[in-house]
Design goal:
Layout: H1 3-17, H2 21-41, H3 46-66, H4 69-80, H5 82-89, H6 91-103, H7 115-135, E1 139-143, H8 150-153, E2 157-162, H9 165-172, E3 182-186, E4 189-195, H10 211-222, E5 226-230, E6 237-241, E7 244-246, H11 251-264, H12 270-283
Parallel strand pairs: 1-3
Antiparallel strand pairs: 1-5, 2-4, 3-4, 5-6, 6-7
Length: about 280
């Protein structure tokens, strides 16, 4: 049994059999630190790596318990150098965390939108895409999902604005400072504009597709982000998701995509439900 797993098992045994006030306080402090670290990387691609590390630890514990010698040896060997690997993989996130601590910055809270506000946002995005399509103004809108896009957000200009059709259309208006690049949306907020995305490396992409479409495919291949693209040449509206592109979207298709994204995939939130009930009570 490796030293790491033995230490972990001893710690669990001590918690279960020798728990005192100082132990509880110690556990709470460690839990808070781990929680804050997770919150710091939750909007970056490093969060997926962190989940993989946790799964490796759980698998190592179960392999020891089930007596799987070969698997246990392999996982223990990987974990033995885990600290070095974590520092290498999370170097950007750790640097960002230290900068936040140095500035005394607070973590951003999640915004819980009401159903009415979400429906307004959907309509504003549809209006934006249809207006830009009619005028043949190019646009690339990226919607953050479970995988954080903080790495991409930091390549652009921070906006943190309330979603509205005039704001989005003004961003993509030709010859304006932010028109060249992607807009990233988180929930019901325009987080950043003029963001730089990696182009797709697939060789199966239609040659008629331009840089915007290739960037949209690229971000959808490496994350679970959903993008909407308006072609500058034809005005055609497209969607990319999971490395696949769907073209020639109309208003009905846009509404279905956005409704699915904002309603069906959202997790249940007690605070959101309370806010909705409170607003409806105030209106009554």
């Amino acid at each position: 049994m490796s030293f790491n797993l033995q230490t972990l098992q001893n710690a669990v045994w001590n918690v279960l059999h020798r728990t005192g006030f100082s132990d509880i306080l110690d556990i709470l402090i460690v839990a808070i630190i781990l929680y804050e670290l997770f919150m710091l990387v939750r909007h970056t691609r490093g969060s997926a790596v962190l989940k993989g590390v946790i799964l490796l630890i759980v698998a190592a514990i179960f392999s020891q318990a089930l007596g799987l010698v070969a698997l246990s040896w392999l996982l223990s060997s990987i974990m033995r150098y885990g600290v070095i690997v974590i520092f290498v993989l999370f170097q950007p996130e750790l640097r960002h965390a230290l900068e936040q601590v140095g500035r005394g910055a607070l973590l951003e809270g999640n915004y819980n939108a009401s159903i009415e506000d979400t429906e307004r946002v959907i309509q504003e995005i549809i209006q934006t895409c249809m207006d830009l399509s009619r005028r043949r103004v190019g646009a690339l809108i990226v919607f953050e999902q479970k995988t954080g896009l903080q790495d991409y957000i930091e390549t652009g200009t921070r906006i943190d604005g309330r979603i509205s059709a005039p704001l989005l259309e003004n961003i993509f208006e030709p010859n304006t400072p932010l028109h060249d690049g992607a807009v990233i949306i988180r929930g019901t907020s325009v987080v950043s504009g003029a963001c730089i995305l990696n182009l797709t490396e697939s060789r199966d992409v239609n040659r008629s597709l331009g840089t915007r479409h290739r960037a949209a495919l690229g971000v959808s291949e490496t994350t679970d982000a959903i993008t909407l693209v308006v072609s500058e040449e034809t005005g055609v509206i497209s969607k990319t998701e999971g490395g696949q592109i769907v073209r020639n979207l109309d208003e009905k298709a846009l509404r279905e995509i956005l409704s699915r994204m904002y309603f069906e995939q959202n997790t249940f939130s007690l605070s959101r439900l309370w806010n909705q009930l409170r607003r409806r009570g105030a209106k009554a």
